[in-house]
Amino acid sequence: MGRLYNRICRFYGSIEKSLDPKIEAIVARKIATIPDVSSQCALEYACGTGLLSFKLSRHFGSVTARDGSLGMLSRARARAAREGAHIDFQEGNILDITDHAGSFDWTFVEFALHLFPPDVEMKILRRLADVARQGVVVIDHRRRWSLPAAIVEWLEGGYYDKFIRLDFAPVARDMGCRTFTEEEIEECMVLSFIK
Fold first, then answer.
1. What does the alpha-carbon distance between residue 123 and residue 95 come to, in Å, rounded to a whole number?
2. What pLDDT score does 148 carry?
3. Which residues, listed in sequence order, are joined to residue 192 by a DSSP beta bridge?
4. Per-residue DSSP letters for 141-192?
5. Cα–Cα distances in angstroms (integers) from residue 162 to residues 45, 82, 117, 143, 173, in the given order
6. What are residue 176's phi and psi, to 5 degrees?
7. What are the structural domains, with CATH classification, of the chain?
């Protein structure tokens, strides 16, 4: 998967342009309202070129962002240097989360969970929840099937068709979450697993 994203990272700017206002609206509604967020730390997996990471860094005290694609990380680091953003970009595979339990206040994953078979998605969610003290936020494609998303996901070889049919409420209960919400914000599905 990393090799695919190493190849397409130079074209990712056009994708970011369409996603930017959507992610901005999601952050304004979901992240900016977290109490005491400026004293908390966040971890984002599958950060790509850092679109969400940069927006999180405006609110959180510290942000660590990981991706398996060195090409994507290179673009993210260059952008951070240009913009003076303080984000710790690291190489890291979402399938191999090694952080200790409770290492971060919040964990995030954006437009990546659908790339994996449902059983693997659940393992990733549980591991992200272990690492988070307060909660996990997943941003991905909305449940209503869309042709553009289906085409992109077909090219990526993901499990979009299965992902949009999953019921995450039982998973949240199994993970011991105090609260689970699913919202559609700006044509995106936003899942919040609150501990």
1. 9
2. 72
3. 137, 181
4. E-SS--HHHHHHHHHHT--HHHHTT---HHHHHHTT-SEEEEEEETTEEEEE
5. 21, 39, 8, 10, 20
6. 80, 25
7. 2-194 (3.40.50.150)
Give the chain's count of helices (H) and strands (E).
8, 7
Quick one: tokens of 92? Answer: 């890291």
CB atoms within 10 A of CB 148: 9
Side chain identity, residue 24: E
Question: What does pTM read for this prediction?
Answer: 0.90
Strand ranges for the chain from DSSP E: 41-45, 62-67, 88-91, 104-110, 132-141, 179-185, 188-194
**Secondary structure class of 8 (helix, strand, coil):** helix
Instruction: Give CA–CA dist 72/7, Å, rounded.
Output: 9
Q: 3-class DSSP state for residue 135? A: strand
**CB of 152 within 8 A of CB of 112?**
no
- What are the 10-residue block averages of pLDDT along the chain, 195 residues in total? 47 70 95 93 95 96 95 91 95 95 97 92 96 97 77 74 90 94 94 96
CA distance 131 to 8: 30
Q: Are 187 and 149 in contact (CB under 8 A)?
A: no
Q: Which strands, in side-by-side order, build the sheet including 179-185?
A: 88-91, 62-67, 41-45, 104-110, 132-141, 188-194, 179-185
